[in-house]
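Lab notebook: predicted structure, single chain.

Context: the supervisor wants predicted structures on file for every construct in the current expression panel, including those that have not yet been purified. This is the next one on the list. No modifications to the sequence; it matches the entry in the shared construct table.
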Amino acid sequence: MAENEDVLQLKSPKSQHVDIGDAGYAKGLKRRHMHMIAIGGSIGTGLFLGASGRMELAGPSLAIVYIICGAFAFFVVRALGELVMYRPSSGAFVSYAREFMGEKGAYTVGWLYFLNWSTTVVADITAVALYAHFWSMFVAIPQWVLALIALAIVVAMNVISVKVFGEMEYWFALIKVGAIVLFGIIGIFLIVTGTEIDGHTPGVALIVDNGGLFPMGIAPMFIIALGVVFAFGGTELVGVAAGESENPRAVIPKAVNSIMWRIILFYAGSVVLFTLLLPWTAYSAGESPFVTVMNAIGIPGAGDIMNVVVLTAAMSSLNAGLYATGRTLRSMAMAGTGPRFANRLNKAGVPYGGILITASIGVAGVILNFFVPERAFEIVLNLAGIGIVGTWMSIMICHWLFLRKAKRGEVERPAFRLPLAPVTNIVTLVFLVMVVVLMAMDANVGRLTLAVFGLIVVALVIGWFVIRDRINPDALIDLGDASELPAGDESRE
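Prediction complete. Output recorded below exactly as produced.
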């Protein structure tokens, strides 16, 4: 009966359903944790490392791509915020897909989200190794060894308790935000004073004299769209964390509404500063643009300090990825569509089974770093991007189906809503489909990624036919009928 009581306590006053995968978690995330998770989730390796490679392709126009993609990211998280206000769940996208799209939809969404974060974990440990090689003392250590050390540290911290995760993410986010704000102050000061940097005078002339806003034309803007969507992967993490928050309905609206201005300020604003301080050709993939600028300024130790910050950003993203997939896999396991090992919780209410499964993918990333260290980051970047696109599409579809139920009077919409829905749902879905289609324009990594994703789709189809007979029909409980509550499963204790 203990599990049944946990389930009953999860009932939302606006929902007639509850996901049994939400039982057993500790409500250990406080308001300050949630705010910093929302902030930190939108600032990761996509900005601190990925921006350099994208500027190589698109130049200053990258700022425009960030704003456009950022607007759609806001629509997605706003739609998710409405679903969270309706029914907070640690299963998040999987749980909502289960209610509005059925178990087949939950299965697809769950594995796409796992693809997103498991490949992001590989990208993050690769980024940590690249950042560490900035210092001569680590150059002699192979990239794969550094990646393995980073993975081991974060896994160990993540399985202790949700409070430890929250504290780690709080301080990681605080360091990231503080560094970007400090960088902005320094950059604006140098532009206003006209202080020469590495032989260049900061200002608009650096953009005009180096090919203008679109030095490589407009086409690269479309090609890099998937990479930019990857940069915003993590904004939806606040929806997962809501299930372990003390009071999600009091925190979610403010956290979600602040996402748009953060994207404009942190992403677009940073790119504008980069191109006003140095020619866009000064930035290269493999080195953070922040480090490039600080080294060019010539302040003693500035590059080292900035490298610590960008390394922190990668560790933060790695921390978030293990957290998110642990909860997602457990929700699926409880329904019978995920590995049974993912069911397991430790005494602190942490789904260590799912976390260790994701960590095993990270080990595969360590192997990738051993064989192709120079391409490891770019290879997984696009796969993670496709996973994010799939997750975002599922959120918009679930929200659209939620709207239809609300119109029929079957559910009640909360006061916090996605503006102009369902128009915003349709426009966002069209945009996300276009992003995937535009990948075909990238003859190098893009087409290869689509080919690999095609194999993943085949694997998902085969997997569904393998597991469909062991699906738990009570994964989503209608609280209108208490008799539907499961008797409990000893393996989940």
